[in-house]
Amino acid sequence: MSDNIYLCSYEATSSWKSRSLAKELVTGAVASVFLGFGSLFLLLASGVYV
């Protein structure tokens, strides 16, 4: 959750020239990993075995 807040605040407050593609890709990758694990454990907790 904090990665999404960080990414949104980073995108909203940084100017176009000061943005770093590497920082955005790393933050997006970390957020997608956490989203994937969260979805997996939510499905397992609700009884859907994947």
From TrEMBL:
Gene Ontology CC annotation, any one: oligosaccharyltransferase complex
Membrane topology, as annotated: Multi-pass membrane protein
Superkingdom: Eukaryota
Intracellular or extracellular location(s): Membrane
Ranges that cross the membrane: 25-49
First-listed, main subcellular location of the protein, grouped into a coarse class: membrane
InterPro entries the UniProt entry points to: TMEM258/Ost5
Keyword annotations of the record: Membrane, Transmembrane, Transmembrane helix
GO biological process entries: protein N-linked glycosylation
Subunit structure: Component of the oligosaccharyltransferase (OST) complex.
Record family assignment: Belongs to the OST5 family.
Function per UniProt: Subunit of the oligosaccharyl transferase (OST) complex that catalyzes the initial transfer of a defined glycan (Glc(3)Man(9)GlcNAc(2) in eukaryotes) from the lipid carrier dolichol-pyrophosphate to an asparagine residue within an Asn-X-Ser/Thr consensus motif in nascent polypeptide chains, the first step in protein N-glycosylation. N-glycosylation occurs cotranslationally and the complex associates with the Sec61 complex at the channel-forming translocon complex that mediates protein translocation across the endoplasmic reticulum (ER). All subunits are required for a maximal enzyme activity.
Protein name: Dolichyl-diphosphooligosaccharide-protein glycosyltransferase subunit OST5
Lineage of the species this protein comes from: Eukaryota, Viridiplantae, Streptophyta, Embryophyta, Tracheophyta
